[in-house]
Amino acid sequence: KKEKVEEFISKLHPRNSGHDLIRLGPEFDGGYLVPNDLENIEACFSPGVDIVSDFERDCSERGMDIYLADASVESPVLDKSQVRFDFEKLFLGSFKYGEFITMDDWVASKVSSLSSDLLLQMDIEGFEYEVFLNMSDRLMRRFRIIIVEFHALDEIWDRHYFNLNNRVFSKILNTHSIVHSHPNNSGRTYNLNGVEIPRLLEITFLRNDRFLLV
Predict the structure, then answer these.
(1) 59: CB partners within 8 A, 6+ apart
(2) pLDDT tops 90 at residue 61
(3) One-character DSSP codes across the chain
(4) Among positive and negative, which fits the CA dihedral 8, 205, 25, 36?
(5) pLDDT surpasses 80 at 52
(6) What's the pLDDT at 78?
(7) I need a surface site. Which of 15, 55, 101, 145 has the fewest CB within 10 A?
(8) pLDDT mean across residues, the chain
(9) How far apart are the first and last CA of the chain?
(10) Is the dihedral of CA 133, 136, 141, 143 positive or negative?
(11) How confident is residue 201, by pLDDT bands cut at 50, 70 and 90?
(12) Model confidence at 81: pLDDT above 70
């Protein structure tokens, strides 16, 4: 129903965290706005490797360890002489099998600390929904900043897909709040019942305890 869709959309309105937003990565595709609250983040986990990796390079320059994963490419476009990074030729999924690994298993295999803050940047072509539903609450709370490109949001008029989206966003918004959202410039929008929805939406979340403004 239209009112259910509009109620869901209202949850996606950004909040002012009190931190300025800065851009990491290139000016166009592959760059993201994040809150300027990056000090003492131990590592950036970035599943989904693109033809550019400037975002990860910028995170490395801010002292983060870089971990990338994508079974569809041989290696990220990064120079190991300039950026220290770890790459796994694996996909992220809801359980470990074949070329897939869970987010909890991946992080546990790379970071020895159980309490340090992390950053997650994820663009994995629709698998983000099952990854979030599978992720432990403990790991969710370790990600100070989460940046995700959500796919196929124009399918939200389908009841089953709506329920999936609602569960995923309810889980994320239990610990984090949206500080920025932007439709992907290369993605189309879908208009039904007077509601225009982008197919691809890039969202930046900040963990609730990091907000300077209530």
Answers:
(1) 24, 38, 44, 66, 119
(2) yes
(3) -HHHHHHHHHTT-----SSPEEEES-SSTT-EEEES--TTEEEEEEES--S--HHHHHHHHTT-EEEEE-TTSSS-S--TTT--EEEE--EE-SS-BTTEE-HHHHHHHH---SS-EEEEEE--TTTHHHHHHHS-HHHHHHEEEEEEEE--GGGGGSHHHHHHHHHHHHHHTTTEEEEEEEE-TTS-EEEETTEEEESSEEEEEEEGGG-S--
(4) positive
(5) no
(6) 76
(7) 15
(8) 92
(9) 32
(10) negative
(11) very high
(12) no
Closest CA to 136 of 103, 166, 161: 103
Residue with tokens 């539903």: 133
CB atoms within 10 A of CB 16: 11
Residue type, 175: T
Tokens representing 62 are: 């801010």
Tell me, what's the pLDDT at 107? Answer: 98
Q: Amino acid identity, residue 185? A: N
pLDDT-above-70 percentage for the chain: 99
Average pLDDT over residues 163-176: 96
Tokens of 205: 């979340």
Q: Give CA–CA dist 193/186, Å, rounded.
A: 23
